[in-house]
Every structure is written in C-alpha cells, then in structure tokens.
Specification:
Elements lengths: L1 H28 L1 E7 L4 E8 L10 H10 L4 H8 L5 E7 L4 H17 L6 E5 L21 E6 L2 E7 L6 H9 L1
C-alpha cells in the first residue's frame, strides 16, 4: 500500500513539474490576455505577446493574407540588413484596427526577410482607447495604431505611425539613416 502511495506522489510531482515547465515557457512569450471586444463581437488580445498570437483562429486569416501578399523592395532590404544591429522595435497595435491588420503582417514579413531577431521586438496589443493590459504603453504617446517605435541603445530614433509615408521598408530605412 505504501509503495502505491509513494508511486502516486512521484507521479503527482512529475505532472506538477511538467505543468510548471509548460506554464513558465508560455508566460515568457506572452504576458497578455485575449478578451472579447463588444464593439466588433470579436476576440481581442491585450498586453504583450509574441507573433504566435496571430496563430489564433480569430487572427490567422487576415494576418496570413496580408503577410503572403506583401512584397518588400529587395534593394531596400539589402540596405536595411546592414543597419539593424542593436535595434529594438516596439509594435503597438489593435486587432480591431484595419491599419494594424494591414501593416503589422507586412512589417513582420520585412523583419523575416531581414532575419531580425524577434527577441528585439515587443508586440503590444491595445484596446480601442489605446490601452494595453496594464502599463505597457504608458508614456509612449500612442494616439494611432499601429505605431512602430524604433530604438537604438534604448533611445527612440523614430516612428512609423498608422501608415507609412512611402512604404514600410523605405520609412524604416529613413528612420535608421
């Protein structure tokens, strides 16, 4: 009888350890939640996420469509590849926003073409009032989404707000010059 209890305790500890590993790995990637947006009757992420949030069935179609359709200027990408060392980017977006649903997938396609390290990208999802889950956007002066903020050595060097002036990659290059 005591062997059965000991075995059960070991199984319980192993299961608990396994669950903790899974939970800790998902917490580092995403510190946000998905809520219901009553205006659009759609699911809406709030807070910090990684791009895997776009695999959710509520977002995958529009993300994939825009990503696949976008074709970045290869000449500009070649120049950008030489300028991205030490760069950090914050993307503030709302899945309820048509500009975000167009520009964010395109921007990720550019980052993929550049082989940009996603450890240097903060994706912050906001509601219609431009508020995240907690204080993620406090002090960032976000009035329109999407907003792409570029940092070098923790100093803001530029932004693309709502829509690019020319194209995302050309505006990106102009910011880094």
């Amino acid at each position: 009888m005591s062997e059965r209890i000991t075995l059960q305790k070991k199984i319980n500890v192993a299961v608990l350890f396994f669950l903790l590993i899974i939970l800790s790995s998902t917490q580092t990637a995403q510190d946000g939640i998905i809520v219901f947006d009553e205006t659009s009757n759609q699911r809406m992420p709030l807070g910090k996420f990684d791009r895997s949030v776009f695999l959710d069935s509520s977002f995958v179609d529009w993300f994939t469509d825009e990503y696949d359709l976008y074709s970045a200027d290869e000449n500009v990408l070649q120049v950008l590849k030489e300028q991205i060392d030490g760069l950090h980017i914050k993307i503030i977006m709302g899945t309820w926003c048509s500009d975000s649903r167009r520009e964010v997938p395109r921007f990720y396609k550019i980052l993929d073409a550049l082989r940009f390290d996603e450890q240097n990208v903060d994706l912050i999802c906001v509601d219609r009032a431009k508020v995240g889950l907690s204080d993620e956007v406090d002090g960032l002066n976000i009035n329109f989404v999407p907003t792409f903020i570029f940092y070098t050595n923790e100093i803001e060097v530029g932004r693309i707000i709502e829509t690019p002036d020319v194209t995302l990659e050309i505006d990106f290059e102009s910011i880094l010059k």
